[in-house]
Amino acid sequence: MAVRAALGGRTGPEAQPTVSGIVRVAAAVVTRADGAVLLAQRPPGKPFAGYWEFPGGKLEPGETPTDALVRELHEELGLRVRSPCPWLVQEFVYPHAHVELHFFRVFDYAGEPTSRDGQAFEWQDPHAIDVTPLLPANARVLASLTLPGIYGITCASDVGMDAFIGRAQRALDAGLRLIQVREPELDASIRDSLAHELVRIAAPHGARIMLNGTAEDARRLACSGVHWSARMLNTAQSRPPDMLVAASCHTHGDLQRAATLDVDFVVLGPVLATPTHPHSTPLGWDGFGETAQGARVPVFALGGLHPHDLRVAVSHGAHGIAMRRYAWPE
Hints:
Structural class: alpha/beta
Largest sheet: 8 strands, parallel, barrel
Oligomer: single chain
CATH class of the largest domain: Alpha Beta
Number of strands: 17
Number of domains: 2
CATH topology of the largest domain: TIM Barrel
Strand order of the largest sheet: 10-11-12-13-14-15-16-17
Shape: elongated
């Protein structure tokens, strides 16, 4: 099981070593146009030879994770990486080393992978990876890759129940696969009816419904998971083990707390001005990137966003974007 970092000080894609004895590594989730990701097999003579991992390598003295990633992918696989996107930082203690892995997602690169060190490699569907054995440090990464890039937040109280269900059906038909039921203005019984109906229409699509509330209510309504407010995140003592757990975050401290509790993903915002939180000061994209830097869990950007913001969000370290108004086609 991955060992969580001591999160008292900020670390991130460009941070320098602060703890002696930790081996810092840059690793790439190279993603092909069809969504497949590249995995490489460790060659003979290395620890865990024969195990599969995401390609990358150790940082050289004075090197940033970004520089190391670009160098390693060119040296090992002949790929010329452009604009790698920071994503997750993970720690793991192996028998031979304590490693800190800086994962990037790479969508923009030139060339085709060529085995320059004699290692095998495979393109794999992230939802159905079948090469084995896999390095245990990749457990969080593999689970996170099954999360979609869009997280829809319900707005039935704005448009009416029947109209919203119609819009939700259209969104599911168009590919939405992760939905949060958040309706603080509705009576609990009406919210429950909405959650029941969304669970029903989401099932044929394999979509997952998260309930903004308690784990007990999420179980009762047959939801896939629970979404905690920042207040609930900071008072929780542990996470429920039998469902997905997400949380709302506004500060780097919230992200630290989310990592300590091992939640599955978080939303961070507001990034831009939004009418639902008119008195909140937006982070802006630079502020979002700074706050999310070094996150140990996937981060969805939230607040005033449109589908066309997905690319800029990912470039600033987001896993994806969460939307309330623009997730639902009329």
